[in-house]
Amino acid sequence: MSDNKTLGKKIIEAAGGAQNIKSITNCATRLRMYIKDVSKYDEESIKKIDGVMGTSIVGDQYQVIVGPKAIHLCKAIQDAYGIAGAGKKQEKAKGNIVNRFLETVSGCIAPLVPALAASGLIKVLLTICSMLNLLPEQSQTYALLSTASDAVFYFMPVILAYTSAKRFQCNEVLAIVIAGVLLHPNFVSMVTQTQEQHMAIHFLGLPVTQTSYNGTVVPIILTVWVMSYIEKFIDKILPEVVVHLFRPLLIVLFMTPIALIVTGPAGAIFGQGLAVVLQTIFAKAGWVALALTLLVTSFLCMTGMHLALIPVAMTSIAEVGYDEFVLVVFLCFTLSQGAAALAVLLKTKNSKLRQLAIPAAISGLFGGTSEPALYGISVKMKKPLYATIIGSTVAGIYAGIVHLKVFAFGLFSVVGIPGYYSAKYSSNLQHAIITAVLTIGVTMIAVWILGFDDSVYDDYDEESAEDVDTAPIVLNENVDDSEVVSVTSGKIVKQEDIKDEVFSTGVIGKTVGIVSNDGVCYSPVDGEIASVFQTKHAMAFKSKEGTEVLMHVGIDSVNLEGEGFKVFVEEGDTVKKGQKVLTYDKTVFEKNNIDETTIMAISNTQDYEDIQMLAKGEEIIAGDPIFATLAKED
Q1: How far from 315 is each of 359, 420, 577, CA to CA, in Å?
Q2: What percentage of the chain's residues is helix, strand, coil (to nearest 5)?
């Protein structure tokens, strides 16, 4: 890290200093900077820095090529100088205003899902321990674990401040500070005291709404959205010489009253109104809303729009302590996908489909994850998808009639059923069990009656199954231990023909491109994962023999920000040649006009006497030798 700090310092100084950099981010091989005053940017000096392989200017983006160390170097610079990492403007959501709103909310909520799931499962664990008398509810251990479960809800505005700031491309730390204002004990105490005394709170004569913001969703998202525009406005009106000093001050001074008087109360009123509407609907005919939603949930999930429903559930939990809508939909939908996979597993004789169905059934029924069954089975054969709609809708109607309540996020599997227990609502656990049985039973019966055509799996390529199989491919028997093998199957692109001069000129090292046939990538060496880039489009490998290989999937694919990619390994993992490590969706590349050439570069080429190209012809198979390294003579 010290080497990165030294290199980072030299680059920042040659770029005109930290105050001259608006933001900095990285892709697989380069730093990407947005410069305030380009006259202070000394490109020639940067090129001469030891460790810098080259520079490039793309539009208003100044790039410094440093090789695979880019991810760690970028972080070192951000940590040392406090420079924001939001270097790329967020692509605006497309479509009508409703689609744009839903996509924006989904973007803010998505990073929160793991924390919500953890919270729900802790509640399940506590419920089981209490029911079995393993852990008394009065014990300090129980209280502390309960606190851990509730923390994400109490501090939800703080977490959402960060994710929303990332989404709206404004300062994350200042957004968290504003969220802290809404949750500060002094403000909470002031609200409590004034409510008890029937008094009002004023800020410079303006009324401050007396409400609690812990556990709320809409107020902070709305607040950070407004803050993003305030920040841009301040950047425009302040001279560059003082913007770094006064921007934080002005943002906090402006946003504190705005949050307390305008956006916070507006979001709270919206949330409270939404809770009232939902309670009214479910008091009258909640089963109708559940049934209609479950009819289209599969399609919502395929587009990612189901995440936009989470704030509705969180608002309901914050206001009344439970949710009768969104989380019930998630329960029925997820179990129905697992049940469809189980029914297919029991009925099919297709060995390849069985290999898909086993993990898909486990994921849906016990893991609370619907995607393996949805994409691997239901969508592919269609009729199981219809069966899941039938099963989940029938169960949803029952759950709506009996007013099934869900008290926490993440209880979407058989394992999570104990979490539906409530001393206040004594029959809720019973209703949850019946709902689960209905979902699973009706779905499986529907699959059996409707049937399915499993012949679509006759030509199924197990190695392209993104969600279920990461086993190594069978390597060419002639592969030598010291040879680097191809990461994918497809058409070879010569180094000089790669449409990125950083790679085509060999700045990174000996390079070759491959246009993949199936979008599946494997490890080129026996060794370890040196790094996996945050945007998922690239990773670096280091073989046991010391060969460093960079795999870069697509040209400018960093702009996808991870969309369409699925990574099966983490930094530090040990891998074998031919082990599946990554897949990408070719349709996403096509839709965004991304050149899908997968690039392999020996990034420590200078450590060898020569790197020989072994591939012959225009095509290559994944696992076949592509490079041979010739060691330098001592």
Answers
A1: 33, 18, 48
A2: 55, 15, 30
Does the structure show a pLDDT above 50 at 408?
A: yes
pTM of the model: 0.51
Q: HSE-up of 469 (CA within 13 Å, CB side)?
A: 19
Task: Give the integer Cα–Cα distance in Å for 8 and 49.
Answer: 10
Q: Tell me, what amino acid is at 505? A: T
247-299, pLDDT tens digit by residue? 888 999 999 999 888 888 888 787 767 667 766 776 666 778 788 877 877 77
Q: Which two tokens stand for residue 435?
A: 């709902």
Pick from 35-49, 77-91, 399-413, 537-551: least confident: 77-91
Residue 532: closest CA among 56, 3, 77, 70: 70
Statement: residue 460 has pLDDT above 50: no
d(CA 481, CA 75): 34
Contact 123, 410 (CB under 8 A): no
Residues pairing with 620 in the sheet:
490
Q: Let me know: does 68 contact 522? Beta carbons within 8 Å.
A: no
Measure the CA–CA gap between 80 and 248, rounded to whole angstroms: 18
Other Cβ atoms within 10 Å of 621 Cβ, number: 15
Task: Please state, as a whole number, how many other Cβ atoms lie within 10 Å of the Cβ of residue 162.
Answer: 19
Q: Other C-beta atoms within 10 Å of 475: how many? A: 17
CA distance 257 to 540: 47
Read off the tokens for 601. 């570069």
For residue 216, give the nearest of 149, 274, 293 by alpha carbon: 274
> Which residue numbers are catalytic?
552
Closest of 520, 552, 510 to residue 535, by C-alpha: 552
Count CB neighbours of 8 within 10 A.
25
